[in-house]
Amino acid sequence: MKMGKHGSEVVADYSKDKKRMDGRKGMDELRPIKIKVGVIPNADGSAYLEWGQNKVYAAVYGPREALPKHSQNPYKSVIKVSYRMATFSVPERKQPRPNRRDSEISKVLGEALQKAVFVENFPNTEISVFVEVVDANAGSRVACLTAASCALADAGIPMRDLVAATGTGKAFNEIVLDLNKDEEDAPDAVDIPLGILPQTGEIVLLQMDGVITKEEFNKALQMGIKGCKDIYKIQKSALKAKYELEELKLDSAKKAIKEEGPSQAGEEKAAKPEKAEKAEKTTKKEDKAKKVKK
Ligand code: ADP
Question: What is the model's pLDDT at position 9?
Answer without folding.
Answer: 57
